[in-house]
Specification:
Shape: elongated
CATH class of the largest domain: Alpha Beta
Low-confidence stretches: none
Number of domains: 4
Radius of gyration: 30 Å
Strand order of the largest sheet: 8-7-6-9-10-11-12
Largest sheet: 7 strands, parallel
Oligomer: single chain
Bound molecules: 1,4-dihydronicotinamide adenine dinucleotide, 2-oxoglutaric acid
CATH topology of the largest domain: Rossmann fold
Distance between the termini: 30 Å
Length: 529
């Protein structure tokens, strides 16, 4: 399998890939978008840093592509939606450059307090100016951290070491985590009003775009100092320029920009209180080695064994998770395939319920396996754990997932129901039994059964009358189809009964037609799960 390394990553990472049996590497740095399109036709993986754009067009031009690995955090240069649609995993290396970026942020904060870059530039010009470059102290000042994640958290620690009071705004952070970091969680408005220094550390999203704009800056203390080493566009550049010119912002530091690379004639370049770096957050030898090796290992793991770590468009499945979740995912896939073949073609919702031990597991991965099983016969092999949820949504099928604590007869149970617009339901329940965790279907359409949740099944609903089992057995025997296991279920004498048979091979079309033509048989379905 071929891996295109499109941006320069650590040579150690590339070397790791070269040493893996069955993998070959093409290094092509600084390629134009047209050249990238020409290179991806036969690749199974692409590794990028932040320069190369993996657009929908690139993904469409790469029919074998399984995974895009980003040596870094932000995946803004990858069209994740297009990748997800195609079932391509997008993974990043979320922690390898945390310290490097936190340290660069702190360098900016220090340069905001003491104008070191400006003083250094004046020395180069041959001056000895001790009047114009005095600054302030960080000690006892308040630092407002917006986004208290990995990098924000490390910046907070460093600020505390400098004797700063640290407050933070992060709507998704559990209050206990802020408390553990001895950081005061506050509202955005409080942070803006109380901070002497503000630093932002979130991804660029609809909610964070221009979060720090004219209105936000007007709420700040006069002479506030502002820093962005996260993503351009979180701080509105035109608002920052105006605030630096008016003195509302005394100093600022930027590593990232609304448009990168920053235009040579950008007005940002000529503001005296502003220190600029060209997106250098992750540019340390240590961080690059770390993310380069991590991304290489992660991509090789996907190509070689299906182990998925740090995927941004599906749950991570490392070897330990796969060991635990694998049997449930297989059971889920079988149940999904079973209700799809059992039920009406058109459905408007796929309802999944989990009971017992399974509730404590990563149900997201099991849900995707059920959805994949359901879609496989409809959409073929192109459906995988990555694109199953979007493919289902595209069909107009709602996915409902419930975790129930109600008592059931099994220590763990998964139920899948396909509900048609007219209310018709096809339903199956399954569990794992015994020490080895064998997958069993234990209910079909509300009838208790017990059959292996794998292979070929014949499901017959018939009048509960003498001779039916013999009739079915004879018919299959005549067709040379061996019965591996059989389960019977009935609601009561004289009503309908359900016969579910594990078969070793597929019955012929004639046998199936004969079964369907029998007036005592209401339904006869052969399903492959
Ligand atoms: N300058 C550079 O070279 C680098 C930049 N980065 C960027 O730094 C940013 C942070 O990275 P990490 O700390 O690793 O990410 P993270 O995912 O650990 O932390 C992000 C935090 O932002 C919070 N958040 C999300 N939306 C928010 C909102 N609307 N308001 C406030 N908080 C919000 C999240 O709850 C989370 O705690 C990312 O944008 C990443 O791309 C990362 C590495 C290098
Ligand atoms: O690879 C780089 O230098 C950019 C790092 C970055 O911005 C990120 O990891 O989000």
């Amino acid at each position: 399998m071929k891996i295109l390394v499109a941006d320069k990553v650590s040579p150690k990472g590339v070397e790791y890939l070269r040493q893996q049996p069955g993998l070959s590497v093409v290094e092509a740095y600084g390629s134009t978008p047209e050249q990238v399109l020409g290179l991806v036709g036969d690749v199974h993986a692409i590794i990028v840093r932040s320069e190369t754009k993996i657009t929908a067009e690139v993904i469409a031009a790469a029919p074998l592509l399984k995974v895009v690995g980003r040596a870094g955090v932000g995946v803004d240069n990858v069209d994740v939606e297009a990748a997800t649609d195609r079932g391509v995993i997008v993974m990043n290396t979320p922690s390898g450059n945390t310290i490097a970026t936190a340290e660069l942020t702190f360098t900016h904060i220090l340069c905001g307090a003491r104008p070191v870059p400006q003083a250094a530039a004046s020395m180069r010009e041959g001056r000895w100016d001790r009047k114009n470059f005095s600054g302030g102290e960080l000690f006892r000042k308040t630092l407002g951290v917006v986004g208290l994640g990995r990098i924000g958290g490390e910046v907070a620690k460093r600020a505390q070491a400098f004797g700063m009071r640290v407050i933070a705004y992060d709507p998704y952070l559990a209050p206990s985590r802020a408390k553990a970091m001895q950081v005061e969680g506050v509202s955005l408005d409080t942070l803006l009003v109380q901070s002497d220094y503000i630093t932002v550390h979130m991804p660029l999203t609809e909610a964070t775009h221009h979060m720090i704009d004219e209105a936000a800056l007007a709420k700040c203390k006069h002479g506030v100092r502002l820093f962005n080493c996260a993503r351009g566009g979180i701080i509105k550049e035109t608002a920052l320029i105006a605030a630096l010119q008016s003195g509302q912002v005394a100093a600022a530091g930027l590593d990232v920009y609304e448009d990168e690379p920053l235009a040579a004639d950008s007005p940002l370049r000529s503001l005296p209180g502003l220190t600029l770096t060209p997106h250098l957050g992750a540019s340390t030898a240590e961080a690059q080695e770390s993310v380069g090796i991590e991304v290489a290992e992660q991509v090789a793991d996907v190509l070689q064994g299906g182990v998925i770590r740090n995927a941004v468009n599906m749950p991570s499945l490392d070897a330990a998770a796969l060991k635990t979740l694998g049997p449930y995912m297989e059971l889920g896939q079988s149940l999904g395939a079973l209700v799809q073949q059992l039920g009406p073609k058109q459905i408007d919702s796929l309802n999944i319920t989990y009971w017992g031990r399974v509730i404590d597991l990563d149900a997201n991965a099991i849900t995707r396996a059920i959805q994949r099983g359901f879609l496989r016969r409809i959409s073929g092999e192109a459906i995988n754990y990555v694109n199953a949820p979007v493919a289902l949504k595209r069909l107009g099928v709602q996915s409902k997932v419930l975790k129930s604590t109600d008592e059931v007869d099994y220590t763990e149970l998964i139920s899948v129901e396909a509900v048609a617009p007219d209310g018709t339901v096809a339903a199956a329940k399954g569990t794992l039994v015994g020490k080895t965790g064998k997958a069993r279907v234990v209910e079909i359409n509300n009838r208790e059964v017990e059959v292996e949740a794998v292979g070929k099944l014949l499901i017959i609903e018939n009048q509960d009358q003498p001779g039916m089992i013999g009739y079915v057995g004879n018919l299959l025997g005549r067709d040379r189809v061996n019965i591996a296991n059989m389960s019977l279920s009935r609601t009561g004498p004289g009503e309908t009964a359900l016969i579910v048979i594990n078969l070793d091979s597929e019955p012929s079309a004639e046998t199936r037609a004969e079964l369907k033509a029998n007036p005592a048989i209401k339904m006869a379905k052969f399903v492959q799960i």
